[in-house]
Design goal:
The protein has 190 residues and is α+β, with helices and mostly antiparallel strands. It has a single domain, classed as tt1808, chain A (Alpha-Beta Complex), CATH 3.90.1570.10. It has four helices and ten strands. It is globular. The mean pLDDT is 93.
């Protein structure tokens, strides 16, 4: 009986030429892996996080938050759930608009754990970002109501409840873990 022949894995350069998938696919350690489809809690946290950062930092041109932004660096092409990039590191095109290709690491990477996702894969992407220049990583677990905070060359910090979350310097944003998970309730009538 003949063995099953697998198609060859593309190189990073070949991968980047392929059409985007929904949900996004990532190129990690020579493999192409598709992310799980975001669901309600994931989408809500992602939206509110980006809005919170951009409401403060975009108008003053300090930094910008992006949902599902492909970042290609260090031999990988990943799509964190949210990224924050300092203004001076954002690639702009000749028209002064945000460029399509980001061939750099995020300054802050945020992953929101989906029910179908392994914690190890997500943590490995956060660690890859920190290894290549990121200053901060969050892993948000909506089911456990925990946020793991990753800083360069430090052990992860587990934060819950009223613990204040660290953010990038020069970002006037004060959030607790409870504040983040309160976003899941939406704006309720009183």
């Amino acid at each position: 009986m003949a063995g099953i022949v697998k198609p060859p894995t593309p190189t990073l350069k070949e991968f980047l030429k392929q059409p985007e998938t929904k949900p996004a696919s990532e190129f990690i350690d020579g493999r192409v892996e598709q992310k799980p489809m975001p669901q309600g809690k994931h989408s809500r946290l992602q939206l509110r996080f980006c809005d919170q950062v951009n409401d403060i930092a975009e108008t003053t041109q300090v930094m910008m938050a992006f949902p599902e932004l492909r970042c290609t660096f260090g031999g990988r092409s990943i799509v964190p759930d949210a990224t924050v990039i300092r203004w001076e590191r954002i690639p702009f095109d000749a028209d002064g608009e945000v460029a399509n290709a980001f061939e750099t690491y995020p300054d802050w990477t945020i992953e929101i754990l989906s029910p179908d996702q392994t914690t190890t894969k997500v943590i490995r992407n956060i660690l890859h970002c920190l290894k290549h220049g990121s200053q901060l990583g969050w892993l948000i677990d909506p089911e456990e109501r925990v946020i793991l905070v990753f800083l360069p060359e430090q052990l992860p910090i587990e934060l819950v409840g009223d613990a204040v979350l660290p953010v990038l310097p020069n970002l006037a944003l004060a959030l607790t873990v409870n504040d983040v998970f309160a976003w899941l309730k939406g704006r309720q009538q009183i």
